[in-house]
Amino acid sequence: MKGRPSAKHGSYKLSYLKYIMPTRITEVNTPDTARTTLRVEGALTLEDAALIEKICCDLKRCSGNGITLDLADLCFLDSDSAHLLCRLRAEQHVSFEGLHLFIQRVIEMEEQKEQSAEGE
Questions:
Q1: Does residue 100 sit within a domain?
Q2: Could you tell me which residues come within 8 angstroms of residue 38 by beta carbon, excluding any fewer than 6 positions away?
Q3: Where are the beta strands (DSSP E) in the chain?
């Protein structure tokens, strides 16, 4: 059946994770700053990271403010999502705050992978 997770490919694990830990994205406005903060909670998969990328583009275009992602309440991040977050930081100058050690390490590993790929 098309569009349905397949246990053979392991994609059911991420789909199952999404039912347990949905992703919540909340805009936190601080009137005194020139930055907009997006608080991200739950499990972040590629689909959610792509949505965050779109939101960041739209916010930056409409307000001109810098964007900060508050990742303190993020409990899961896959390598594809980490890749997209690295791209956001590099191309749109999005900053991160509240990184737990695991989340920070996943992002650092993805950045190292990208740097080694550029060097080849």
A1: yes
A2: 25, 26, 27, 28, 52, 55, 56, 59, 67, 68, 69, 70
A3: 24-28, 35-44, 66-77, 95-97
Instruction: Give the CATH number of the domain where residue 106 resides.
Output: 3.30.750.24
Place of tokens 């737990």: 100
By the 8 A CB rule, do 68 and 38 touch? yes
Paired sense of beta strands 95-97 and 66-77, if any: parallel
pLDDT in tens, 35-64: 899 999 999 989 999 999 999 999 999 888
Q: How far apart are CA 120 and CA 101, in angstroms?
A: 29
Quick one: pLDDT at residue 68?
Answer: 95
DSSP 36-68: EEEEEEEEE-HHHHHHHHHHHHHHHHHH--EEE
Rounded distance between C-alpha atoms, residue 80 and residue 90, angstroms? 15
Helix axes 46-63, 79-92, angle to 10 degrees: 20
Residue 110 inside a domain? The answer is: yes
